[in-house]
Amino acid sequence: MLEVVAASAADDPLTSVMGVIQVVLEYVGTIAFAISGAVAAGRKRMDLVGVVVLACLVAVGGGTLRDVLVGNLPVFWVRNPTYLLVAILTAIAVVALTRTRALDVLQRFHVIQVSDAAGMAVFVVTGTNVALAAGASDISAAIIGVLSGVGGGIIRDILADEVPDVLRSGQFYATAALAGAAVYVGLLALDVDPLLVFWIPIVLILVIRLVSLRFGWGVPTFSYGAPDDGAGPVGGAERGGSG
């Protein structure tokens, strides 16, 4: 649980509801990340063990990286293996669902992308908070928060022998995470109400991410010495770059 929320009013019903919503979003994000890992494994024709391993690494990779960086050991999934169990079950479910059109339906309606954005937003905020609680500076905590949100995807792409999508997706991803982490740190410094401190960055990250998905917005890419594919001059900068 976020310390800023828990410290506000342990007996406040509204705070309790917010805490439950946070946990729900964390599990939603875990499931979404596990699905992305399992799908990436399927595209690389991995066996069932590979699917489960990659799904778990994506689901808990960012939080593991966060805990290691701040010395919060044992890492969170060792203390609470439920997250790992959820990732394993999700990976197995993905393999089973590939025999149906369920995954195609989820992707068509962007359910997985929205869930991924929600989970990433929560992990960025909680990651930043954990880093601050461990004594990290504001800047370091924001960076650790970003890594907590996007680290699993980076691990997924590296193991799948791909350039990390966060560096080339053409949409705001890491940028959204950094904006949310910075706002979170700023709101804490301003001593804003704890519930607002928690929810404003999450909403901000979601809005940036979903608008980027809808309209394809991103930061400029840099191309130098790459084969000319007709997209623009070599060495130029073009829209839709590193997220």
UniProtKB/TrEMBL annotation:
Q: Does the keyword Glycosyltransferase apply?
A: no
Q: Which residues form the Glycine transporter domain?
A: 24-98, 114-187
User: What protein name applies here?
Assistant: Trimeric intracellular cation channel family protein
> Any idea which UniProt keywords this protein has?
Cell membrane, Membrane, Transmembrane, Transmembrane helix
Question: What kind of membrane protein is this, topologically?
Answer: Multi-pass membrane protein
Protein's cellular compartments = Cell membrane
Membrane spanning segments where?
Answer: 20-41, 48-65, 77-97, 139-159, 171-190, 196-217
Q: Which InterPro entries match?
A: Gly_transporter
* Organism in which the protein naturally occurs: Agromyces tropicus
Query: The organism sits in which domain of life?
Result: Bacteria
Family note? Belongs to the UPF0126 family.
